[in-house]
Each structure stands twice: as structure tokens, then as C-alpha cells.
Write a structure and sequence with these properties.
The protein is an alpha/beta fold. The protein is built from 16 helices and 17 strands.
């Protein structure tokens, strides 16, 4: 496989290409690396490759003449990639795709960037090795080259090595052990000493599942799991971030259809469906808020029917979900109940389809990891401004760029909860 590297610092790769498996692969001809310096294509005596940006601003921009000449001079350019934090994430799947190419060309940017017209002249795909900024693309290119080269036949000492590594199966890898069998009181797991290949494979699969659940649960979204895998994961003891989250359904004060502030009636379906969402995601509770006493009495009859009445025997699952429901005359009472559950004040997180937001979903996830929070949704046409004004943060609309943003509160509760807790499983 051929890697063409366009870089103004070709010496950057000297060490990388002269040690370890990469050096052996180059020596054996499994991998060929051609370093191309755009400065060699400059027409001036200073070998200039950059210039000041149009529109002003700090720094310099890599220009087109030298880069275009360098690219057009390649005999086997293959697939063109540019290392950029704005690119497609480098994953094991992408590495596998690139390993099937005969040649790959890597553009290593420097300065403030590259003249954007280069993408109009060539079919170049940006690739990112992470959400951070480097001084140039060289170190990122090393990451990409090694990830891809490891999958080229003949690179690894054993083909099985690549097949069992992290991400090869879509999961993180299981832990490894070697001699001595016991070190400072720490023993190698007995299963690995049994010599029973099926038992060892089962142990490794379980540890791989557990490691992925603890560190990268988002990987399960793209990884098929067997029934045995799912049953094992259900039994894994872990801290569930949902315990800190309480959903609050506010019926007043909310915005009415005519733009005024008022109170709307409680809906049986809202109580049932949001209670089921709360139980499914392991929330701390479901707080129903209405200032109308007749509505509180109605809600109490609904809940009692399922928790203690005939509904308990007819549908125990529904009764389990409705056991999370608590009824409050006002938002202060709901906040006090949540604070009492956790022994500390609870944050008030509001939702609004109108915007603007003051709390990102990422920040809300971090908040839930550290303290209890009451996440309130408004019935009617959304929470009144007085509720939004007192909130510690307002989450973004669920569909901020859609021309239709009128989800039912039940649907919004499910989507919102999954967006905050979905990856936590």
C-alpha cells in the first residue's frame, strides 16, 4: 500500500517510519511511503507556500499554486484525504475502508488552514482524529497511517491480532494478563488459567462488554448484541445517571393558545406515558405539577387505581411505572421533594421549543452526573416566562432547525430523556 504525504515538514516522519512494526512493514514492502514537500514546487527563491488571508485576520493560509502542483505531480494519488478537526471521524471502520485502497494521499495542513478552493479542484475528504486542534496535520497523519496499515495483510505478525483488538468487533477489548500468575497479591483470573477455550472466550466476551458499557456505551449503537450479551449487561452493577434526573410536568403557569399565561387540564395519557419513560430510563421520579386541586384529586385517583387498586393486579408493570409519580400544587413543592430525596438542593432545568437555550445537552449531562435536577416540561404551549426566568438553565429545542416544532409533551419527554441519558444505557 502506498501513502503519499504532502507536508512542509517531511522530516517529522523520520522516527515514526524507522521503528516498530511500521519500520518492518516499510522494509518488507508491505507499506510504501512517499513524502512530498510543497515547497519543492514553489517558483520563488524563498520557496513560499503561504500568504495572508483575504478578509484579514491573524496567521497565514497555505496557498494553491504549490499544493495544486504537488498533487498533480503524483503518479498514484489514490484517495485524497486532508487531516482536519472538521473532518469525518477516524474510526476502525474508516481505517478498514482505507486499508482496501492501493494508494492514499494525506494532506498535512499548517498555519491557519488551506485555501478552500483546493476542494473545488480536487475530490478531497477531510478526516479528523479527534475534537482538538493541533499545530499541523503531521501527527494526525501518523495516527491515520498506523490505524490503516495495521489492517493491510502482512503488517501484523498474526492476523488474529487485528481481529481481537479494540473496535474490531465493535467493542472495546478485554483486559490482558501475563506472568507472574500472582503479583503483589493480585492474581490472574482463574478462567484464563483453566485451559478451557470456550470458557476463556466467554470470559473475554463478558469483560469486553463490561468495559464498553463503562467507558464507551455509545459503541453499542452500531454493534449487534446476542441475547446472552444483553442478559449479561442487564446484570452488571453500575451507577445509573438517571437516578439524579426527575421529570416535572407543569400544567401551570404555562402559555395558552391565545398567548396568555394560565393553567391547562391534566391528561391521563401524559401521566401514564411519561411515568413509563421515567421507569424505563431509571429516573429518580416523575413530578406532576398543577395548582388546581380538583386536577390533583383526579390525578391521585388515576395513580391510586394502578398503584393500590384493581390496576395493580391487572398490570403490575404499569403500577411499577406509576409508583414514580408524585403530585404537587406548585413548582416549589416539587423542587423541595426532589431536594429531600437527595439531601441537597436540586437544579431546575427548563425546556422550551421557543428558545433561546442557555444550557447545552452536553452541559446538562455533566450536571446530572454531579447533582440532582428537576427537568420541567410545559403543557399547553410551553412553560411560562416566569418559570424560564427562574431556571438554572434552559435546554435547546429538540428540533431547532425544523420548520415544524410541535411535538406532544409525551413525545418530547421521551426524546428529551433519551438525548440526556440514552448513551448511558
Amino acid at each position: 500500500m502506498l501513502f503519499n504525504i504532502l507536508t512542509i515538514f517531511p522530516e517529522f516522519f523520520d522516527s515514526f517510519l524507522s521503528c516498530g512494526l511500521m519500520a518492518k512493514a516499510v522494509e518488507a514492502g508491505v507499506v510504501t511511503v512517499a513524502r512530498v514537500n510543497p515547497r519543492d514546487f514553489a517558483q520563488d527563491k524563498h520557496h513560499t507556500v503561504d500568504d495572508r488571508p483575504y478578509g484579514g485576520g491573524p496567521g497565514m493560509v497555505m496557498g494553491l499554486p504549490t499544493l495544486v502542483a504537488a498533487l498533480r505531480g503524483l503518479k498514484r494519488p489514490g484517495k485524497l484525504l486532508m487531516l482536519s478537526p472538521a473532518g469525518r471521524p477516524l474510526t476502525q471502520r474508516l481505517a478498514g475502508e482505507l486499508a482496501g485502497q492501493e494508494a492514499v494521499t494525506l494532506l498535512c495542513g499548517r498555519y491557519e488552514g488551506i485555501d478552500a478552493r483546493l476542494f473545488d479542484l480536487f475530490d478531497i475528504e477531510p478526516v479528523s482524529v479527534g475534537d482538538f486542534v493541533l499545530s499541523g496535520g503531521e501527527s494526525a497523519a501518523c495516527c491515520l497511517m498506523e490505524a490503516v496499515a495495521r489492517l493491510v495483510p502482512g503488517f501484523m505478525g498474526k492476523d488474529a491480532s487485528a481481529e481481537e483488538e479494540s473496535f474490531a468487533s465493535g467493542l472495546l477489548e478485554y483486559p490482558h494478563y501475563t506472568r507472574p500468575e500472582v503479583f503483589e497479591g493480585l492474581a490472574v483470573p482463574a478462567e484464563l488459567l483453566s485451559g478451557h477455550h470456550a470458557a476463556i472466550a466467554a470470559w473475554r466476551r463478558k469483560r469486553s462488554l463490561e468495559t464498553t458499557l463503562a467507558r464507551r456505551p455509545d459503541l453499542f449503537d452500531a454493534t449487534p448484541l446476542s441475547n446472552d450479551d444483553i442478559q449479561h449487561l442487564r446484570g452488571v452493577a453500575r451507577v445509573r445517571p438517571g437516578r439524579n434526573m426527575h421529570i416535572g410536568l407543569v400544567h401551570g403557569p404555562v402559555m395558552l393558545k391565545d398567548g396568555k399565561v394560565g393553567t391547562v387540564s391534566l391528561t391521563n395519557l401524559d401521566v401514564h406515558d411519561i411515568a413509563r419513560v421515567s421507569r424505563t430510563y431509571g429516573l429518580g421520579g416523575f413530578e406532576v405539577v398543577t395548582p388546581l386541586r380538583d386536577q390533583l384529586a383526579l390525578a391521585a385517583r388515576i395513580v391510586d387505581h394502578w398503584r393500590e387498586g384493581p390496576g395493580l393486579a391487572a398490570n403490575p408493570d404499569r403500577a411499577e411505572a406509576l409508583s414514580l409519580v408524585r403530585l404537587h400544587e406548585g413548582l416549589d413543592a416539587a423542587l423541595a421533594a426532589v431536594a429531600a430525596d437527595h439531601g441537597r438542593p436540586a437544579a431546575l432545568v427548563a425546556t422550551s421549543a421557543r428558545g433561546p437555550a442557555s444550557l447545552s445537552f452536553a452541559a446538562a449531562r455533566a450536571l446530572l452526573a454531579s447533582r440532582p435536577a428537576l427537568v420541567v416540561l410545559g403543557t399547553g404551549h410551553g412553560l411560562a416566562d416566569e418559570v424560564l426566568a427562574r431556571a438554572d438553565g434552559i435546554l435547546p429545542p429538540l428540533r431547532p432547525f425544523s420548520d415544524y416544532n410541535h411535538l406532544s409533551v409525551r413525545a418530547a419527554a421521551g426524546i428529551l430523556t433519551d438525548r440526556l441519558l440514552g448513551d448511558a444505557r
